[in-house]
């Protein structure tokens, strides 16, 4: 069959497009909205491995995840370290903090305009002038104290650890004894001064806030977590669990982070 005129032109255009791997009638590409980077900040007496289950779930859903080491040396310096670690990360950010990590993400977010949401996981949500220790003492119920902790003095300062025989009761009651013992052995200590240092800024008002309250928490009183979440206007979910939600309830935590990211 002989093809002439317009038909010939259309046939040639289609053949060339197929050869190039592009459609015959090209249109401007539609860019999908980029997912935010999820930043997971651990608290005292743990390290970034506490987020492993959460990280795996978020990565399977296509999120970029960054779980930096939190120095646990002082609130201002810890927040500055986090801001510096995020200097090379472009695009929107969702900051997630567990326990003392809530203090750090609140302080860091004040100077990070790319933060679109803050997620507090059994965490402190401070206002300016408040310290973690003051907030923890506001309501009864915390077992954190001299009977459950020990200090290590060294030339540059003092570190605070949870005693190995108290770690499961205080921190990891939802985990088996063997798993809690492993976590206790590898815990990352905090400088006591960090718990006493008041926030300079507190949680900024603009980003959306989400909070998970651990109803069986023995490190931060659940009443304190409820109070801070309500005061901050956070969308709050209560979980019948102990303090270490990232390790014991990674599915619940990841689901909350995804809600915040969307």
Automatic annotation (TrEMBL):
Keyword Signal recorded: yes
Domain AB hydrolase-1: from-to ranges: 38-255
Signal sequence region: 1-19
InterPro entries from the UniProt entry: AB_hydrolase_1, AB_hydrolase_fold, Sec-Metab_Biosynth_Hydrolase
Coiled coil region boundaries: none
GO molecular function list: catalytic activity
Annotated keywords: Signal
Superkingdom in the source lineage: Bacteria
Name under which the protein is recorded: Secreted protein
């Amino acid at each position: 069959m002989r093809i002439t005129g317009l038909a010939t032109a259309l046939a040639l255009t289609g053949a060339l497009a197929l050869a190039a791997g592009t459609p015959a009638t090209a249109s401007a590409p539609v860019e999908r909205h980029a997912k935010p980077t999820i930043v997971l900040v651990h608290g005292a007496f743990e390290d970034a491995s506490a987020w492993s289950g959460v990280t795996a779930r978020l990565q399977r859903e296509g999120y970029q995840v960054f779980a930096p080491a939190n120095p646990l040396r002082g609130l201002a310096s810890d927040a500055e370290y986090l801001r510096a670690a995020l200097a090379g990360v472009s695009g929107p950010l969702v900051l997630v903090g567990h326990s003392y990590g809530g203090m750090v993400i609140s302080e860091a977010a004040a100077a990070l305009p790319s933060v679109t949401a803050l997620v507090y996981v059994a965490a402190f949500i401070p206002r300016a002038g408040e310290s973690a220790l003051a907030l923890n003492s506001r309501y009864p119920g915390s077992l954190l104290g001299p009977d459950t902790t020990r200090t290590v003095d060294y030339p540059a300062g003092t570190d605070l650890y949870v005693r190995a025989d108290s770690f499961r009761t205080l921190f990891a009651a939802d985990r088996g004894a063997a798993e809690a013992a492993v976590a206790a052995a590898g815990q990352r200590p905090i400088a006591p001064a960090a718990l006493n240092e008041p926030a300079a800024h507190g949680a900024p008002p603009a980003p959306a806030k989400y909070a998970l309250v651990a109803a069986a928490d023995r490190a931060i009183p659940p009443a304190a977590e409820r109070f801070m979440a309500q005061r901050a206007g956070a969308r709050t979910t209560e979980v019948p669990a102990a303090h270490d939600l990232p390790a014991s309830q990674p599915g619940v935590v990841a689901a909350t982070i995804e809600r915040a990211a969307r």
